[in-house]
């Protein structure tokens, strides 16, 4: 009896034990996030930060050596204690080695990431085709100049000879032919992707030499799934060859197509002022948040919330207006074209609802927590899914399937639903006051304009300042947040260390939002955070030291900017010659692996933070970090510590400066008019 009573007491004690929750300060460096984590815990609402405390990751899965590609598994191949000494004898049931398993898992991540970006691009291409065929009247070609710039890359003529006279072709003809050629990139039967020839010639020849020129986008993704099926490709070098082909199909195919076609439809971005963080939400306004990655619907929602009809309707319901903001890359898309402020990064999405002020959260695809539905149940928020491939099982989620043929009708219906929900708010609304100013909306064209204006727009100015040492080099710092790391800390520390050492930073995705929250996306930031050379250039040109180039598909802008630097001359003949490096400090998704691999395959030293899912197979890991550099000029690296991470990038940049013979700063020379005329010539 005494023993039974003791057991009963123990059981009660366990039942009453409070669940583990996140320490707000340890979870994030962002004040708004810290405040909202504490609010969620006070209300008894679990968030991703709490789940990261209670659920630990699988160590073997992190190492990349767990295979579940058939029902004889999962086969788990942990590293022996003390590491591998001598021959690696680990095998799965079928005999697959650790290298084979890690390579299969790695390129399956490439396939997942490439599929996500490329399916995004396909959706945009389909809308583009509906515009070309006059089937959709809510969209139009907003940037015909961009259309004329990309048409030659599809072998689409922009002029025609009539009776011996060259005339401009009708725009409608060009649009239709570009649409047909673009859609063909996903499934054409022969040939190669059109955009591959946009790469520097030396890089294209490398791809050709090693047999990795993508044939069409879908085929490369499907072939990965076939090769990684049980009992097919069992050579890690051959597996990564196909992963390389698929990654290139993403970066120089699906992603680049998505960026270009979005620019033609919605207008290419130019620098625009805005704000960032949860403090952009307004208590006396209807708050609508768009979240995801495709701008096809969000462009229409921007138009709807700005319409006189919807603004007046909101006022009739007691609101002072409508505040639209965004999360993740949908946020970046509408930021760079309209100045709509991003409210949150990936990890803050639940917190936006926990403010109690979110009247509707409208989601499309990618990076959307299913737990949003559970959080929304605690508040009045309408959670609306809009894409046929992205639904949620919870009964409180509303699905309004978006159709480009009646786009404005769908957008207006969603906005009206949010306005009608404004009066259903609870008494407790808590919006953090934290927000920061930013200048975003940079692209290849706008950078070119900033460096030289309308008549002398060129990347020569950038190259000249790299050669003379004012700018040490270029860094692309991109990617998601990861709940296994302190929110935003690695992003900000890496970027600050880079610009302190005169490295100009190009950013996309959640890194861009994190930098905006920290105040790094303003021209004034240069004087505070930069080394003297970069600060001088930023002050002269009037740009921030961190240039926000858009969403994660817009990493293709970084590829094209690097190509323009090569074309401008003086810094080698290939991207791999440039004093440049890439980074994803807090990466999380399969898209990051695909992005990282197409940068490596394009000749860029690419370093990830947190972990690499290849460490359990040392031979394969070394192949990625050493052998690929001999082939393409780029390599993978890993460094979780943010400062060491940035310093590795700087060391690589310095190595490239030495190779180019520009490691010593060039003396300044006062130029007279004759000197300038000679330079112009």
Cα-atom radius of gyration: 26 Å
Assigned CATH architecture of the largest domain? 3-Layer(aba) Sandwich
Content-based structural category: alpha/beta
CATH topology category name of the largest domain: Rossmann fold
| Poorly predicted parts | 1-15
Number of spatially distinct domains? 3
Mean pLDDT: 94
Strand content: 5-15%
Could you tell me how far the N terminus lies from the C terminus, measured between alpha carbons in angstroms?
100 Å
What do you see in this structure?
With 681 residues, the chain is an alpha/beta fold. The chain has 3 domains: 98-266, Substrate Binding Domain Of Dnak, Chain:A, Domain 2 (Up-down Bundle), CATH 1.20.1270; 278-424, Rossmann fold (3-Layer(aba) Sandwich), CATH 3.40.50; 436-660, Rossmann fold, CATH 3.40.50. Helix content is 49%, strand content 11%. The chain contains 28 helices and 18 strands. It has a 6-stranded parallel β-sheet. A 6-stranded parallel β-sheet has the order 15-14-13-16-17-18, with helices on both faces. The protein is globular. The N and C termini lie far apart (100 Å). Mean pLDDT is 94; it is low at 1-15.
